[in-house]
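chain below, 59 aa
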Amino acid sequence: MSELIKTTYPYCYVFLAQTSAPHMRKAVLENYIKTFMSKYEPSLEYVAIKGTYALCRRK
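prediction:
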């Protein structure tokens, strides 16, 4: 298993996710982060959110 890498994502995504319904906020934030990572860090694969960081691993 490869080592996890902490990467930052735009903090405005947190505010954007808060505008959605309460039961959907985590899923919306994860979707924003997955899309961001696929566009700007294509060599990394999203694993989880840990605080203000996204945990990723190399593909």
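The first helix runs from residue 12 to 18. Helices lie at 12-18, 25-40.
thats it, cya
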